[in-house]
Amino acid sequence: MSPATFVSSLWRLNRWIPVLLALLLVADLGSYLYLARVINPGLYARERTFIELQQRARQARRTELAARNPRQVFRKGQKDLEQFLARVPGQDELSALVGDLFAMARKAGLDIKAVDYRPKPLPEQGLIEYALSFSVAGEYGQVKRFIYLIEKSERLVVVDQLNLDRGRKDEGTVRLSIRMTTYFRRGEA
Protein backbone atom coordinates (compact mmCIF):
# COMPACT_ATOMS: atom_id res chain seq x y z
CA MET A 1 0.00 0.00 0.00
CA SER A 2 1.49 3.34 -1.04
CA PRO A 3 1.65 6.27 1.39
CA ALA A 4 -0.86 8.26 -0.66
CA THR A 5 -3.35 5.37 -0.62
CA PHE A 6 -2.86 4.94 3.11
CA VAL A 7 -3.49 8.64 3.83
CA SER A 8 -6.58 8.73 1.60
CA SER A 9 -8.01 5.62 3.30
CA LEU A 10 -7.38 7.21 6.72
CA TRP A 11 -9.05 10.42 5.51
CA ARG A 12 -12.15 8.47 4.46
CA LEU A 13 -12.35 6.55 7.77
CA ASN A 14 -11.84 9.43 10.15
CA ARG A 15 -10.79 12.92 9.09
CA TRP A 16 -9.53 13.88 12.55
CA ILE A 17 -6.71 11.32 12.65
CA PRO A 18 -4.68 12.77 9.71
CA VAL A 19 -5.30 16.33 10.95
CA LEU A 20 -4.19 15.37 14.46
CA LEU A 21 -1.10 13.60 13.10
CA ALA A 22 -0.22 16.66 10.98
CA LEU A 23 -0.65 18.97 14.00
CA LEU A 24 1.55 16.71 16.13
CA LEU A 25 4.19 16.66 13.40
CA VAL A 26 4.16 20.47 13.13
CA ALA A 27 4.31 20.82 16.96
CA ASP A 28 7.23 18.36 17.12
CA LEU A 29 9.09 20.19 14.36
CA GLY A 30 8.42 23.55 16.05
CA SER A 31 9.68 22.23 19.40
CA TYR A 32 12.83 20.88 17.80
CA LEU A 33 13.56 24.17 16.02
CA TYR A 34 12.94 26.17 19.21
CA LEU A 35 15.25 23.86 21.17
CA ALA A 36 17.96 23.90 18.49
CA ARG A 37 17.85 27.65 17.70
CA VAL A 38 16.93 29.27 21.02
CA ILE A 39 17.62 27.00 24.01
CA ASN A 40 20.78 25.10 23.03
CA PRO A 41 23.04 28.07 22.16
CA GLY A 42 22.40 29.67 25.55
CA LEU A 43 22.82 26.33 27.29
CA TYR A 44 26.13 25.66 25.56
CA ALA A 45 27.39 29.15 26.47
CA ARG A 46 26.46 28.62 30.13
CA GLU A 47 28.11 25.20 30.12
CA ARG A 48 31.33 26.68 28.69
CA THR A 49 31.25 29.43 31.34
CA PHE A 50 30.72 26.84 34.08
CA ILE A 51 33.65 24.71 32.87
CA GLU A 52 35.86 27.80 32.64
CA LEU A 53 34.96 28.84 36.20
CA GLN A 54 35.71 25.31 37.44
CA GLN A 55 39.13 25.45 35.81
CA ARG A 56 39.83 28.84 37.41
CA ALA A 57 38.82 27.54 40.84
CA ARG A 58 41.08 24.49 40.47
CA GLN A 59 43.97 26.69 39.36
CA ALA A 60 43.42 29.03 42.32
CA ARG A 61 43.50 26.06 44.72
CA ARG A 62 46.72 24.78 43.14
CA THR A 63 48.30 28.23 43.35
CA GLU A 64 47.24 28.57 47.00
CA LEU A 65 48.72 25.17 47.88
CA ALA A 66 51.96 25.93 46.03
CA ALA A 67 52.28 29.30 47.78
CA ARG A 68 52.18 27.74 51.24
CA ASN A 69 55.40 27.58 53.14
CA PRO A 70 56.58 23.99 53.75
CA ARG A 71 57.06 24.85 57.42
CA GLN A 72 53.42 25.93 57.67
CA VAL A 73 52.33 22.69 56.05
CA PHE A 74 54.52 20.71 58.45
CA ARG A 75 53.18 22.60 61.49
CA LYS A 76 49.62 22.04 60.35
CA GLY A 77 50.35 18.34 59.90
CA GLN A 78 51.81 18.15 63.40
CA LYS A 79 48.81 19.96 64.85
CA ASP A 80 46.40 17.62 63.03
CA LEU A 81 48.34 14.59 64.29
CA GLU A 82 48.25 15.90 67.87
CA GLN A 83 44.49 16.44 67.61
CA PHE A 84 44.07 12.91 66.28
CA LEU A 85 46.21 11.37 69.01
CA ALA A 86 44.27 13.32 71.65
CA ARG A 87 41.11 11.52 70.46
CA VAL A 88 42.73 8.09 70.75
CA PRO A 89 41.64 6.55 74.06
CA GLY A 90 43.90 4.75 76.50
CA GLN A 91 44.27 0.98 76.36
CA ASP A 92 42.00 0.65 79.40
CA GLU A 93 39.08 1.69 77.15
CA LEU A 94 39.15 -1.60 75.19
CA SER A 95 36.61 -3.26 77.47
CA ALA A 96 34.37 -0.17 77.19
CA LEU A 97 34.55 -0.40 73.39
CA VAL A 98 33.59 -4.07 73.47
CA GLY A 99 30.77 -3.19 75.87
CA ASP A 100 29.58 -0.50 73.45
CA LEU A 101 29.55 -3.05 70.62
CA PHE A 102 27.41 -5.39 72.72
CA ALA A 103 25.09 -2.49 73.62
CA MET A 104 24.72 -1.46 69.97
CA ALA A 105 23.92 -5.05 69.02
CA ARG A 106 21.27 -5.25 71.76
CA LYS A 107 19.81 -1.93 70.63
CA ALA A 108 19.48 -3.35 67.11
CA GLY A 109 17.91 -6.55 68.45
CA LEU A 110 20.97 -8.71 67.84
CA ASP A 111 23.25 -10.76 70.04
CA ILE A 112 27.05 -10.96 69.81
CA LYS A 113 28.30 -14.30 71.12
CA ALA A 114 31.99 -13.37 71.32
CA VAL A 115 34.45 -10.77 70.06
CA ASP A 116 37.84 -11.96 68.87
CA TYR A 117 40.56 -9.33 69.21
CA ARG A 118 44.20 -9.37 68.29
CA PRO A 119 46.55 -6.63 69.54
CA LYS A 120 49.42 -5.38 67.42
CA PRO A 121 51.81 -2.92 69.10
CA LEU A 122 52.87 0.12 67.08
CA PRO A 123 55.82 1.29 69.21
CA GLU A 124 56.87 4.16 66.94
CA GLN A 125 53.46 5.80 67.32
CA GLY A 126 52.96 4.78 70.93
CA LEU A 127 49.76 2.99 69.94
CA ILE A 128 48.29 -0.49 69.97
CA GLU A 129 46.21 -1.56 66.98
CA TYR A 130 43.42 -4.01 67.76
CA ALA A 131 41.84 -6.11 65.03
CA LEU A 132 38.32 -7.02 66.21
CA SER A 133 36.10 -9.59 64.56
CA PHE A 134 32.69 -11.01 65.43
CA SER A 135 29.44 -12.21 63.91
CA VAL A 136 25.77 -11.50 64.47
CA ALA A 137 22.65 -12.98 62.89
CA GLY A 138 19.19 -11.57 62.56
CA GLU A 139 16.73 -10.00 60.18
CA TYR A 140 18.13 -7.75 57.48
CA GLY A 141 16.66 -4.61 59.07
CA GLN A 142 18.31 -5.41 62.40
CA VAL A 143 21.69 -5.99 60.77
CA LYS A 144 21.33 -2.76 58.79
CA ARG A 145 20.51 -0.81 61.97
CA PHE A 146 23.53 -2.35 63.74
CA ILE A 147 25.87 -1.23 60.94
CA TYR A 148 24.33 2.24 61.11
CA LEU A 149 24.93 2.39 64.88
CA ILE A 150 28.58 1.43 64.40
CA GLU A 151 29.01 4.12 61.72
CA LYS A 152 27.48 6.80 63.94
CA SER A 153 29.42 5.74 67.03
CA GLU A 154 31.81 8.23 68.61
CA ARG A 155 34.38 5.44 68.87
CA LEU A 156 37.44 5.49 66.66
CA VAL A 157 36.91 2.34 64.58
CA VAL A 158 37.63 1.46 60.98
CA VAL A 159 35.38 -1.17 59.44
CA ASP A 160 37.73 -3.26 57.33
CA GLN A 161 35.38 -5.94 56.07
CA LEU A 162 31.67 -6.76 56.10
CA ASN A 163 30.33 -10.11 54.94
CA LEU A 164 26.62 -10.79 54.66
CA ASP A 165 25.50 -14.38 54.27
CA ARG A 166 21.94 -15.53 53.89
CA GLY A 167 20.86 -17.89 56.63
CA ARG A 168 18.57 -20.81 56.05
CA LYS A 169 15.68 -20.01 53.74
CA ASP A 170 13.06 -21.02 56.28
CA GLU A 171 14.52 -18.65 58.91
CA GLY A 172 14.68 -15.48 56.80
CA THR A 173 17.82 -14.30 58.58
CA VAL A 174 21.15 -12.93 57.45
CA ARG A 175 24.50 -13.39 59.11
CA LEU A 176 26.91 -10.47 59.36
CA SER A 177 30.60 -11.11 59.87
CA ILE A 178 32.47 -7.92 60.59
CA ARG A 179 36.16 -7.14 60.94
CA MET A 180 37.26 -3.78 62.25
CA THR A 181 40.36 -2.04 63.50
CA THR A 182 40.69 0.37 66.41
CA TYR A 183 43.59 2.10 68.11
CA PHE A 184 44.50 2.78 71.75
CA ARG A 185 47.36 4.60 73.43
CA ARG A 186 49.90 2.32 75.10
CA GLY A 187 50.72 2.17 78.75
CA GLU A 188 47.38 3.24 80.18
CA ALA A 189 46.06 -0.20 81.06
From TrEMBL:
Keywords: Membrane, Transmembrane, Transmembrane helix. The chain crosses the membrane at residues 16-36. It comes from the Bacteria. InterPro entries: PilO, Transl_elong_EF1B/ribsomal_bS6. The keyword GTP-binding does not apply. GO terms for biological process: type IV pilus assembly; type IV pilus-dependent motility. It holds the Pfam family PilO. This is Type IV pilus assembly protein PilO. It comes from Geothermobacter ehrlichii.
